[in-house]
Amino acid sequence: MLLAAAIRLAIAPFFMHAGDVGTIYESSIMVLKGANLYDFVYAKTIQMQSTTGLPVFFEGYAYHPLLIYFFAPFYWLFTLIAGNGPVMIDGHYPSLPVLVYPWTPLLLLFLKIPIILADVLVVYILAATDSRKAKIYAFCPYVIFIGVVWGMFDALVALFLLLSYLTSSRNSFLSGFFYGLSLMKLYTIVLLPLYVVRLFRKWKAFSAFFAGFAVTLLPVVYYLIVSPVSVWNVLVTFQGGRLMGGVNLYNFIWVVQDLQFDLVISMIPNILLVVALYYLIRRFGMKAPLLQSTLAIMFAYFLFGKVINEQFLVAIFPLMLLCKECDHRLWVAPFVFVFLRSPFYYFMLPILWTSPVFYGYYLQADEVWRQLQAAGYLQIPMYAVGIAFSLLIFWNLLRVIDATRGGISSTPGVTGPMGHRAYDRVLKRARGVWGSSILNRP
Amino acid sequence: MTDRRQRAVATSSLSGCRHTHDGSHGQFREKPLSQLCFSVQERRSGLKLRRRLTLFFAIYIIAMSFIPLLHDTLIAQGRWLGYGTGAYQYQSQNYFILFNDPYDGSSKPHIHVNPGFAPASRISLVEFSDWTSWVNDHNLFNEFNVTMRANWGTLDVTYSRPELVIHKYVEVSSDAVKVILQSEKEFGAHLEIWRWVMSSINGISIKDVAKPLVIAPTTLLEFTFSDDRLQGQGHGRIEMSAMPSQIQIWPHEKGFNRITVDFVNSMMSFTVSGSMEAVGGLSLNWNYALLPYVLPVVSITVVALYLLVGKYGRTIKNRAARRGN
C-alpha cells in the first residue's frame, strides 16, 4: 500500500491531461469564490452554439456537484502555500495551457491527492480479501496512468462503487450513500434500476438505501433550485445528447463529420442499452449475486453506452478483481487506446513547458501527429481497438451471465460457436467425474 | 445455520449444483465445476442463446461499420454539414470545401478539388486565411465577432464589429466555389489566399521572380500546380467580380505560396474553380476520404478473429490441457 502511494506521489506532479486537470483547477477556483459552476459552463455552451449555429457543448464541469468538494479543499491548501495567482491558464481544447512555475508541479500534486487517496483505499480494501488482487490494482499501469498521469478521478468512482457493494449486505444506508457518491461520474446511474429491483418489497432496506442515496443528492437539489436551466443543460442535455464514441465500436462516428446525423445515429445504442438493461435486470436483478449483477449491467453499459472514455474501466476494475468470471486484463485495450487518441507527449506538458527548447520539440512532434491524424492513419487502429474492447466486454458479460445461472455456457470448451459437440464432450467428461445420475436429471 | 440457509444448501445439492447460498443479499459462494449443475435442457437452451447473442452482436458491429459509407454516398453530398466544435464542410462531385471552426483562423474556407481520375482524393486548391486578412485594418480572425449559419447550399459567416458588419457567403455549384464578401457599407480589405505551392500565376513562373511581386491589375488569376502523390498537374482560376486595387504574389522556395488582394468595395466575389489531370502512371494513394471504405474491412476482420479464437482457440487449449493430463 505504501509502495502504491509512493509511486503515485512520485509521478503525480509531472504529468497531466491539460483539459481535464484544467477543468478541475478552474472549478476549484470558482467554488472557492462562491461562483456557480453550471452557470459558467452553460454560458460558454450558449456562446458556442450562438457562434456556430450547431448543437455543440462546452466540455467543462459536467459532473455531480459533490465532486468538486473533494478537490477544492486541496486547492485551498495549495493557495495557502502558493497564493492565489494563476498557475494554469486556459487548457481547453484547442488551446494549449500556459503554465506558471515553480507552482505547476505542486498544484498537480495537490489536485491529485484525492485520486491517490482513493487508489490507496481501494488497495487497502482489496488487500483485506486477497493481497494478489490488491497488488494487481496497486501496480496496474492502466490504473496508475489514469489516476496520476492523466489526472482523471475515476478511482473515486471505483472506491465508492466498491464500498457500496461491500456494505450492501450489512448497511443499506451506507450502501445507498456510497452509491450516490459513485454518481460523481454520472455513468453509474445505470445501476440504479438494479438497486430498485433488488430492494423491492424489502421496505426497510429500500428506505435505508434511498435515505443514504438522497443525502448525496442534496447538492443537486440545491443547484436545481438555484439555477435549474444551467443544471439541466449541463447534466442532462449535454450528457444525454453527447455524440457516441470512445473505446467502443461506435468511434467510427468520428469519421462522419455531420453533427446532426451523428446525433440521430447516436440514439441507436441508447435503445439497445435500455433493452439490455431491461433484460438483465429482469432476468438476473433479483436472483443473481450483487457483484455479478452489477458487473453485468456495467458491461452492458460498456457495450451500448454511447460514450465510453478510456478511463471508465477504472470504475469497475476493483469489482472485476473480486469477480472470478471476469478477466481483469481487459485494461490493456483502453490503455492502448489512450496513446492512439492523444499523443504521449501531451501528458508531459508540465515537463515540456519548463523550457522553450522542449516547447519547440513539442510543436515539431505535434506537427507529425496532426499529419497522421489528418491522413486518418490513427483512426483505423482506434476503431480496431474499440471493437476488440467491445468484444472482450461481451465475452466477459457472457461469462458473468453464465456463472449466475443465466443458462449461457461459458465452460471451457463450450464457448463461442462450437455448438453441441463441445457441449457433449463436457457432458461425457462430467459423467466420468460425477456419474450419470446427476447430469441426467431434468 | 439458519433454516433458510439450510434450505438453500439442500436445494442446491438436490439439483447437483455446487453453489451455496449464504442467505444474505444475494451473496453466492461458488465452488469448482459450478457450471455442471445445469440440466441438459438448460445447457442446450443456454448454448442456443449464447450463439444467438454472439451472432446478433457480430452482425451489429459489422452493420454499424457501414454507417460512414452510407452517409458518404447517400447523405453527405451537396450540402453544408456542421461538425466538431463548429466547423463546416461541403462535398460536391468536384469540390470538397472546409470552413474551419471559429477557434481557428485558417481554412476560411479551404477549397479542395476532387480529381476525376481519383475522386476520393482531396487536392488543396486554395485556402482563404482569416489569420492574415484584414478589413478596415482590423484582423478578420482576432478583431471581429463571428457567427456561422448554414442552409442547404450556402454558408453565411457574419463578421461583426460595432461599426461594421460583413457577410462572407460560400456558395458551391457543380463547376465552381464562390466566396462573396458583402457589407452594407464600403470597406477596404486586404485578403490573403494561400496554396503550397503554385508553380505559376498568370504565366509568371517562380524562375522569373525572387521577391514579392505586384502584378498588373486584373479580375482573373490563373495558376498551375502539381501534386507529387498523385503525380498530377492541376490548374486553378480565381475570378473576381470587380477590379482590385492591388494584387501581389509571393514566392516561396519551389513556387508561389500566396496571393494578396487589396480592394475597396461593398461587395467582392471570388469564383474559384480548378481541375487536375494525371501525368504518368498512378500509384495507390491513401486518403482520409477512403476511411469509410476501410472501416467495414476492419470490423469484419476483428469480428472474424474473435469468432475464430472462440472456436479454435479453446479447442487447442483443451487439447493441450488433455495432453498435459
Entry keywords:
heterodimer; A: mainly alpha; two-stranded antiparallel ribbon; two-stranded parallel ribbon; globular; disordered C terminus; B: Beta-galactosidase, Chain A, domain 5; 17-stranded antiparallel β-sheet; two-stranded antiparallel sheet; 4 helices
Question: Please, could you describe this protein's structure?
Answer:
- The complex is a heterodimer of chains A (442) and B (325).
- With 442 residues, chain A is mainly α.
- Chain A folds into two domains: 409 residues, no CATH class; 29 residues, no CATH class.
- Chain A contains 22 helices and four strands.
- Chain A has a two-stranded antiparallel ribbon with strand order 1-2. Chain A has a two-stranded parallel sheet with strand order 3-4.
- In chain A, strand 1 and strand 2 form a beta hairpin.
- In chain A, helix 8 packs antiparallel against helix 9.
- Chain A is globular, with a radius of gyration of 23 Å.
- The N and C termini of chain A lie far apart (50 Å).
- The C terminus of chain A is likely disordered.
- With 325 residues, chain B is α+β, with helices and mostly antiparallel strands.
- Chain B folds into three domains: 34 residues, no CATH class; 52 residues; 210 residues, Beta-galactosidase, Chain A, domain 5 (Distorted Sandwich).
- Chain B has a 17-stranded antiparallel β-sheet that branches. A two-stranded antiparallel sheet of chain B has the order 1-2.
- In chain B, helix 2 runs antiparallel to helix 4 and helix 3 packs antiparallel against helix 4.
- Chain B starts with a helix and ends with a helix.
- The interface between A and B is large, with 81 and 77 residues.
